[in-house]
Amino acid sequence: MVAKAASTEFYTHKMNEQRYPRLQLRTVKELMVGKGIERPSNVAALDETFKKAPESKKKLGHQKEFGM
Question: Is the overall model pTM greater than 0.70, yes or no?
Fold first, then answer.
């Protein structure tokens, strides 16, 4: 499993050109002591790293009232 993870490709971030392993293995112990995964920082992730849904088109008008 470790060899397979080491043989996978890397992700190169568009903004800062840093490389991150696409597949990273962590044990429960490593996660419990705070060892995370290698990934872009939150600031770097604000660009086009993650796909965003298109904004919805707002309809202008009034909300209809319920006939109660």
Answer: no
